[in-house]
Amino acid sequence: MQPRYWHEHLNAPEPGTRLCRLDQIQDGAGKEFKFGEGPDQFRMVVFRTGRNAWGYVNVCPHFWLPLNFLPEKFLISGPGRVMCSHHSAIFRFEDGFCVDGPVKGGHLDAVPVEVAGNSVIIGGSPSTKP
After folding, report:
1. Which helix (H) or strand (E) holds 121?
2. How many whole angstroms separate alpha carbon 29 and alpha carbon 26?
3. Quick one: CA dihedral 106, 108, 109, 113, positive or negative?
């Protein structure tokens, strides 16, 4: 059974965790981040458009597979859209909503991220999990 919220996943990063510089994520694309090892590894992706960034657990809700097939290779399906490389579901960057494909109307599991200066960090306070 999948955890209900991002922070319930094993190895999920703490709020306040710095992920990278904003300029390390290509504009109009996504970057994957991994925490932990083996089958309990927490995988997330951050998509960027300009100075905006959105984070999600890197799992398509269709069959619970990662959105990308190859490391760091996300299929961008038009501006602000990503396609699951396994079954072609298309999700919006800004809210993770599935606009087409086998889980149309579904959502990616959001991970709150913030842009602070030029850093992308996990949203929330480092002392508390949501």
Report:
1. strand 119-122
2. 5
3. negative
Beta-bridge mates of residue 119 = 21, 116
C-alpha span between 121 and 118 (Å, rounded): 10
> What span, in angstroms and rounded, lies between the C-alpha atoms of 22 and 55?
12
- State the Cα–Cα distance between residues 64 and 76, nearest whole angstrom: 19
Of 32, 35, 44, the C-alpha closest to 6 is 44
* Residues 75-121 pLDDT 10s: 999 999 999 998 899 999 999 999 999 999 999 999 999 999 999 99
The residue among 56, 39, 51 whose CA lies nearest residue 97 is: 56
Please state the pTM of the whole predicted model. Answer: 0.92
Strand 119-122 relative to strand 113-116, pairing: antiparallel
3-state DSSP percent of the chain in helix, strand and coil, to 5: 5, 40, 55
Q: Beta strand pairing status for 110-111 and 52-57?
A: antiparallel
**DSSP bridge pairs for 91:** 82, 98
